[in-house]
């Protein structure tokens, strides 16, 4: 008990001495041991690294999981050292709803078939998102957290110790200065010099330990740079997968759209009156969805009847006097034969329709080149 009381009194005395020294420094009444410029630069670099690492970590977490409630739940599981439960992604949930809707509407109906195709693509997108989140968490977020919760805590601890050692050193310097100024206190002066040597040694040792830790920030930057490259690679693969999935889906929908609409036309024609059945333009106007279309020119001089039969000779096709539009190409397209026009993404072409053409195709012109182009690869401009 006596030992504890003495230790408590000693600790209280040290704390009081440090508080006095700190207060006098702030008031400009005491000298302060300054660290060298290199050491100060190391401290500033470490603080900058810590601050930006925290911001990048938090914003990456928001990017990977926009739902704040889900982030809080994952944080709690992590602190409790428990495995985070698997969570369905938004894409997978949408895929589930689309599949269930297709079963209710009828998987054999045009709408049901399309829902199944889109739902399958959404499921693949959700799985790709899950894989990207998992990869980014392991290869990028975990190293950042390890730095903040490991290396930075050690650096902060050693910096606090160094600060205390500096306050003790400056307090000893002040006491020695006062002892030298006083007369007939040679014994006190000797004790003060001995204490100063001890505190100076402890300060130098702690400064060296802290310096080594701060210089390790360079290795931290190298490690985080490698992790950043892995994060970018994972993100690139994720978006490349998403692009390919959507491109495949667009091709599927483009190839099946004509069949779906054709089946719709046949069904409507069979159930309509004879007068209506003899008017295909009226049936098409009633059944086609409201999408941007190119006006069909009733008669074009020089265009043979083979166009209506699906055979196109580009050299024989002449653009109509009116009804042409400009279009921007969305994706690269490789022509299947000489009647088609190869496309490059983002280029501008002129398009128009001909009587009897498949509604999924238009005639495209680019300079002296001419050929059929798929509508799904174009963005029609006004």
Automatic annotation (TrEMBL):
Organism superkingdom: Eukaryota
UniProt xrefs under Gene3D superfamilies: Arfaptin homology (AH) domain/BAR domain, SH3 Domains
Alphabetical UniProt keywords: Apoptosis, Coiled coil, Cytoplasm, Golgi apparatus, Membrane, Mitochondrion, Mitochondrion outer membrane, SH3 domain
Gene Ontology biological process terms from the UniProt entry: apoptotic process; membrane organization
Localization in the cell: Cytoplasm; Golgi apparatus membrane; Mitochondrion outer membrane
SMART domains, alphabetized: BAR, SH3
Alphabetized InterPro entries for the sequence: AH/BAR_dom_sf, BAR_dom, Endophilin_SH3RF, SH3-like_dom_sf, SH3_domain, SH3GLB_SH3
Chief location category: cytoplasm
GO cellular component: Golgi membrane; mitochondrial outer membrane
Quaternary organization: Homodimer, and heterodimer with SH3GLB1.
PANTHER family reported in the protein's UniProt record: DREBRIN-LIKE PROTEIN-RELATED, SH3 DOMAIN-CONTAINING
Homology family: Belongs to the endophilin family.
Name of this protein: Endophilin-B1
Name of the gene encoding the protein in the UniProt record: SH3GLB2
């Amino acid at each position: 008990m006596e030992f504890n009381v003495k230790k408590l009194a000693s600790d209280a005395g040290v704390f009081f001495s440090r508080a006095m020294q700190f207060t006098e420094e702030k008031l400009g009444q005491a000298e302060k041991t300054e660290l060298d410029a290199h050491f100060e630069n190391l401290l500033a670099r470490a603080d900058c690294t810590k601050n930006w690492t925290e911001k990048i970590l938090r914003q990456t977490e928001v990017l990977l999981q926009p739902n704040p409630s889900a982030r809080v739940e994952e944080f709690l599981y992590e602190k409790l050292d428990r495995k985070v439960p698997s969570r369905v992604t938004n894409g997978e949930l949408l895929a589930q709803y689309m599949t269930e809707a297709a079963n209710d509407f009828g998987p054999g109906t045009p709408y049901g078939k399309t829902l199944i195709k889109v739902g399958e693509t959404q499921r693949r997108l959700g799985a790709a998102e899950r894989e990207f989140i998992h990869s980014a968490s392991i290869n990028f977020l975990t190293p950042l957290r390890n730095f903040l919760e490991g290396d930075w805590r050690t650096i902060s601890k050693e910096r606090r110790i160094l600060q205390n050692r500096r306050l003790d050193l400056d307090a000893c310097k002040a006491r020695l200065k006062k002892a030298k100024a006083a007369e007939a206190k040679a014994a006190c002066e000797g004790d003060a010099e001995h204490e100063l040597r001890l505190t100076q040694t402890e300060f130098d040792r702690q400064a060296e330990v802290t310096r080594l830790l701060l210089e390790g920030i360079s290795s931290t930057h190298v490690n985080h740079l490698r992790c950043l490259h892995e994060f970018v690679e994972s993100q690139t693969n994720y978006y490349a997968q998403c692009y390919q999935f959507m491109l495949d889906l667009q091709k599927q929908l483009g190839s099946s759209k004509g069949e779906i609409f054709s089946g719709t036309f046949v069904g409507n024609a069979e159930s309509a009156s004879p007068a209506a059945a003899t008017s295909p333009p009226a049936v098409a106007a009633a059944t086609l969805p409201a999408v941007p279309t190119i006006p069909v020119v009733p008669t074009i001089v020089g265009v043979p009847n083979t166009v209506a039969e699906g055979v196109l000779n580009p050299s024989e096709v002449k653009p109509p006097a009116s009804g042409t539009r400009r279009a921007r190409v969305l994706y690269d397209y490789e022509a299947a034969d000489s009647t088609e026009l190869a496309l490059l993404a983002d280029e501008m072409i002129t398009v128009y329709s001909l009587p009897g053409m498949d509604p999924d195709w238009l005639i495209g012109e680019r300079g002296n080149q001419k050929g059929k182009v798929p509508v799904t690869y174009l963005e029609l401009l006004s």
